[in-house]
């Protein structure tokens, strides 16, 4: 058995042992930053090539982590498949009946990975290319047989595929506007009629085929709300979203709900609010029109797992005289007991689950965008005093909560069934599985295995510890920023899956962040059969992509079309842009280090190289995985400012922690310290921790990450649920002080002071900081221009913006130059500056203060109220020109259209995270062109991160059919679908 390092993503970090005898199906595009990491060190360690050549031959032993399939490997793969019969007959069919649109040449790939442009590439070619040569005939039977042939034993409810014995709810059957007109009728083979009957996954795939046929073209039907419900008119694309969402809820297949994946800032929130209002309005009219109607779609509306447990009639439940509110309805229902779930679980309205940072924004949107007459009753379910009474939750139309609370309160959906198999699959086939550290981790402190406070993690809902969220049956569960559950093995993903609901929605502008596997978690949450079972996801989605990416991605697009609506800001409707946003221009500002910085970086790189070589020589790359990550982190940080590597601002835990540490026994201090010093990984973000801290329960985090939990509403450790507070979180220096019994001497503050002094003395300057200051200076000059008028004096509605398909223009500028901005003096020019490291924000803060630039700050260590205040002040106070934000804490959900400039100080592995950050400013409400400057340092690790980002973008574009090069070739045709689904 050999080992291979894998770091599958920014958040899914893994050391995995891979095995011999892998089937070809294991060749997947797990090109994620690990490969880049290794490649980076390979570039540095030219003398190591023999190892990697050996590593390439690891293929023969099972090193299978690959990026997007390469032309060479794909060809090799296909050739092999043809000879070993793995694909069976379908390979020949590929040649015979391939529709024209599926015969495009393979996507071009990054030359440095392919290896044609430098000496290292051949090693990668070896990695990629050798994999197909691995042959495992014995395993192929598990997968073989083409798309439809490997689903035995998956047992889906065949009964859903039927016809007319289910009565439709009147809203579905009689047409509520455009949404229902073309798909009602009892003969629709997609409709489910209940659970429990066997259904083969071949049939499931047939259903998806039919759904894909109906969704082949971009949805165009629109539905609007009756006047008087929303305080603002819906935009055209939002009316389309409403029609589509309403349809997905009133049809029975493939699942009730879906993924609204519109770009950030296009109005997913308002579309969802409109859906809630629409459904309530329909239910109300329905009940008024047919008060005695009893032919209700019980099965249709039943919770997926409940087997008809949900006995209420939706129309009755929501029937209220002259009001949408559930409150009045509730009184009525209490007497009739219709709002009962299985006789004991109350039926509740819509649950919105979102990151803590956007709860208030949701509340604001619900308040501002819904009229007084239609006001929904809303509960923000958070805080220590939240109700424990499920019937209380059932009183509200909308309940909002956070992922942390769901994770804490809801029994986790078991990973067994599909996932034990899945584990086996992953292990056997070298696929990414969950973060293996969790399996290997041992509690060093003897910390309790189960939370004293919260009890069993996998408790079922009869457990008294199980919270109120899990004790009601929701009409609808909406996951906002649904990428939060992209790793289906996490507690949070499993808890979300455990919520009982009739309809489920994922909202995300960036549903795929790292790999196609991200989609699996949504499918699982949505109960999107057959893909909600990993085995099936693997064989029907991943295998085809690995065999032939062109065809495989098309199939994925078809599968997604059935449940996902995605429009970007560049999408055209009837030839017109869906939204007239001012343009966004992205500048890549490549700057060089100063002489001092370069020399610091070069030394660091050379030390890292030597260390890496030592690990490689000793054959201990795997064991030193975390160290390698740490070295990489240091290189990335050195690109920002040398002081980040030297430990500036290294201790932020504060007095409470210092006091508490003094109360610990020396043994405990030493034990915690040993653990903290053993090159850990943050359990929240899976990166080497910035400002590492350890909790009393023995889990390691970035200080910012753990602060998110402390300042959030749950206050519990995301790993073990122990109660968290500042007095149970310790830094290295605090522990060292206590372990040395050196009470009274805080080495941390000493160190901090020293470093700060060094910084103040200008021991090192940072090219990035200088670039930022230059940009700010230049913007400030522009803002004072003599002819300045906002938008050049034009009303925003008539701005002559060109909106092209690409959405944004990327300009590469080699040296700092500030892109010209339309002059404006009516509103001040404001800038958001992002960094992933709070220590970089510290350094920046110092420089901004020095230049007397007024700014606000937002990072994960701040309370939600403080963050909210910072956003408001930045938005409303004309003197506050700059917001400095942590990428981790500020990239999601926030509306910050006061800013028309965004500066990204460092690169994130995953480009979608940057996109999310940028779109805080580039969203509805923005009236000025948005300029984005990404600052990178030439000839450093950042070059490779840029390359990796391109690779990820290509993968996402392929999955969504958004690769611009392909034009109409990326569009699915009926022939494609027939071919893809073999019908
Ligand atoms: N029809 C509308 N009329 C007026 N304002 C709107 C409308 N639709 C959206 N907005 C505003 O546009 C901004 C962006 O909308 P929203 O937050 O719903 O986008 P989103 O797609 O959910 O973004 P993200 O993915 O970043 O969360 C919000 O301030 C919202 O109030």
From TrEMBL:
CDD domains the UniProt entry points to: DEXDc_SHPRH-like (cd18008), SF2_C_SNF (cd18793)
InterPro entries (UniProt xref): Helicase_ATP-bd, Helicase_C-like, P-loop_NTPase, SNF2-like_sf, SNF2/RAD54-like_C, SNF2_N, SNF2_RAD54_helicase_TF, Znf_C3HC4_RING-type
Extent of Basic and acidic residues compositional bias: 189-204
Start and end residues of each Helicase ATP-binding domain: 249-529
One Pfam family it belongs to: zf-C3HC4
Start and end residues of each stretch annotated as Disordered: 169-204, 414-433, 441-463, 780-801
Annotated Gene Ontology cellular component terms: nucleus
Keywords, ordered alphabetically: ATP-binding, Chromatin regulator, DNA-binding, Helicase, Hydrolase, Membrane, Metal-binding, Nucleotide-binding, Nucleus, RNA-mediated gene silencing, Transcription, Transcription regulation, Transmembrane, Transmembrane helix, Zinc, Zinc-finger
GO molecular function terms noted in the UniProt entry: ATP binding; DNA binding; helicase activity; hydrolase activity; zinc ion binding
Classification via PANTHER family: HELICASE-LIKE TRANSCRIPTION FACTOR CHR28-RELATED, TRANSCRIPTION TERMINATION FACTOR 2-RELATED
Record-stated family: Belongs to the SNF2/RAD54 helicase family. RAD16 subfamily.
Name under which the protein is recorded: Helicase-like transcription factor CHR28
Taxonomic classification: Eukaryota, Viridiplantae, Streptophyta, Embryophyta, Tracheophyta
């Amino acid at each position: 058995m050999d080992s291979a390092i894998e770091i599958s993503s920014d958040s899914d970090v893994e050391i995995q042992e891979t095995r011999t005898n892998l089937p070809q199906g294991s060749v997947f595009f797990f090109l994620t930053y690990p490969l880049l990491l290794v490649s980076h060190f390979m570039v540095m360690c030219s003398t190591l090539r023999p190892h990697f050549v050996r590593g390439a031959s690891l293929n023969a032993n099972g090193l299978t982590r690959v990026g997007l399939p390469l032309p060479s490997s794909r060809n090799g793969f296909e050739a092999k498949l043809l000879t070993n019969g793995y694909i069976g007959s379908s390979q020949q069919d590929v040649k015979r009946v391939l529709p024209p649109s599926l015969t495009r040449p393979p996507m071009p790939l990054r030359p440095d990975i392919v290896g044609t442009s430098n000496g290292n590439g051949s090693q990668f070619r070896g990695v990629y290319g050798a994999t197909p040569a691995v042959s495992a005939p014995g395993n192929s039977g598990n997968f073989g047989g083409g798309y439809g042939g490997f689903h035995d034993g998956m047992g889906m409810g065949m009964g859903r595929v039927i016809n007319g014995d289910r009565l439709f709810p009147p809203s579905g059957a009689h047409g509520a506007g455009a949404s229902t007109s073309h798909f009602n009728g009892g003969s629709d083979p997609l409709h489910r009629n209940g659970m429990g009957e066997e259904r083969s996954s071949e049939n499931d795939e047939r259903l998806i085929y039919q759904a894909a046929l109906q969704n082949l073209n971009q949805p165009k039907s629109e539905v609007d709300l009756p006047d008087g419900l929303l305080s603002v008119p819906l935009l055209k694309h939002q009316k389309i979203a409403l029609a589509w969402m309403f349809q997905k809820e009133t049809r029975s297949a493939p699942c009730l709900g879906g993924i609204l994946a519109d770009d950030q800032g296009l109005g997913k929130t308002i579309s969802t609010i409109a859906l809630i209002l629409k459904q309530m309005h329909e239910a109300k009219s329905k009940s008024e029109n047919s008060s005695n109607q009893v032919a209700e779609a019980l099965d249709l509306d039943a919770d997926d797992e409940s087997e008809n447990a949900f006995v209420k009639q939706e129309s009755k439940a929501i029937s209220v005289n002259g009001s949408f509110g559930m409150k009045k309805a509730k009184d009525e229902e209490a007497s009739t007991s219709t709002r009962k779930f299985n006789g004991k679980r109350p039926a509740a309205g819509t649950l919105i689950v979102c990151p803590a940072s956007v709860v208030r924004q949701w509340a604001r949107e619900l308040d501002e965008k819904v009229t007084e007459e239609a006001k929904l009753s809303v509960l923000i379910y958070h805080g220590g005093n939240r109700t424990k009474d499920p019937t209380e939750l059932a009183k509200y139309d909308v309940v909002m909560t956070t992922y942390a609370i769901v994770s804490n309160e809801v029994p986790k959906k078991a990973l067994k069934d599909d996932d034990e198999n899945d584990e086996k699959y992953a292990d056997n086939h070298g696929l990414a599985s969950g973060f293996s550290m969790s399996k290997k981790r041992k509690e060093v402190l003897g910390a309790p295995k189960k939370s004293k406070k919260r009890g069993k993690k996998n408790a079922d809902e009869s457990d008294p510890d199980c919270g109120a969220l899990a004790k009601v049956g929701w009409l609808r569960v909406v996951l906002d920023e649904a990428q939060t559950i992209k790793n289906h093995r996490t507690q949070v993903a499993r808890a979300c899956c455990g919520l009982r609901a009739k309809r489920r929605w994922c909202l995300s502008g960036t549903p795929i962040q790292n790999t196609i596997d991200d989609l699996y978690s949504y499918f699982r949450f949505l109960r999107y059969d057959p893909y909600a079972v990993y085995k099936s996801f693997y064989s029907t989605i991943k295998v085809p992509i690995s065999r032939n990416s062109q065809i495989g991605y098309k199939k994925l697009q078809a599968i997604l079309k059935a449940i996902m609506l995605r429009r970007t800001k560049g999408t055209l409707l009837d030839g017109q842009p869906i939204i007239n946003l001012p343009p966004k221009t992205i500048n890549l500002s490549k700057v060089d280090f100063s002489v001092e910085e370069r020399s610091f970086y070069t030394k660091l790189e050379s030390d890292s190289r030597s260390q890496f070589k030592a690990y490689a020589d000793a054959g201990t790359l795997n064991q030193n995985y975390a160290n390698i990550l740490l070295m990489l982190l240091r290189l990335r940080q050195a690109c920002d400012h040398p002081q980040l590597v030297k430990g500036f601002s290294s201790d932020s835990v504060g007095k409470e922690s210092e006091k508490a540490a003094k109360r610990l026994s020396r043994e405990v201090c030493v034990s915690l310290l040993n653990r903290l010093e053993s090159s850990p990984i943050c359990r929240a973000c899976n990166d080497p921790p910035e400002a590492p801290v350890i909790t009393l329960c023995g889990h390691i985090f970035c200080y910012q990450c753990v602060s998110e939990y402390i300042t959030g509403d749950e206050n519990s450790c995301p790993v073990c649920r122990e109660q968290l507070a500042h007095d149970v979180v310790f830094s290295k220096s605090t522990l060292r002080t206590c372990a040395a019994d050196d009470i009274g001497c805080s080495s941390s503050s000493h160190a901090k002071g020293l470093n700060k002094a060094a910084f103040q003395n200008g021991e090192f300057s940072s090219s990035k900081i200088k670039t930022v200051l230059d940009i700010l200076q230049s913007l400030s000059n522009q803002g004072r221009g003599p002819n300045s008028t906002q938008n050049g004096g034009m009303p925003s509605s008539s701005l002559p913006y060109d909106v092209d398909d690409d959405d944004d223009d990327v300009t590469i500028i080699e040296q700092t130059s500030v892109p010209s901005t339309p002059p404006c003096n009516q509103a001040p020019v404001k800038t958001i500056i992002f960094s992933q490291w709070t220590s970089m924000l510290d350094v920046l803060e110092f420089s901004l203060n020095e230049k007397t630039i007024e700014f606000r700050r937002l990072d994960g260590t701040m309370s939600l109220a403080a963050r909210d205040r910072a956003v408001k002040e930045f938005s409303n106070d004309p003197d506050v020109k700059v917001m400095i934000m942590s990428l981790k804490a500020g990239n999601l959900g926030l509306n910050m259209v006061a800013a028309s400039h965004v500066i990204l100080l460092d690169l994130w592995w995953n480009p979608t995270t940057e996109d999310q950050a940028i779109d805080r400013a580039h969203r509805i409400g923005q009236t000025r062109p948005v300029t984005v400057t990404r600052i990178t340092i030439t000839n450093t690790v950042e070059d490779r991160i840029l390359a990796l980002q391109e690779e990820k973008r290509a993968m996402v574009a392929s999955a969504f059919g958004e690769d611009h090069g392909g034009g109409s070739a990326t569009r699915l045709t009926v022939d494609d679908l027939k071919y893809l689904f073999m019908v």
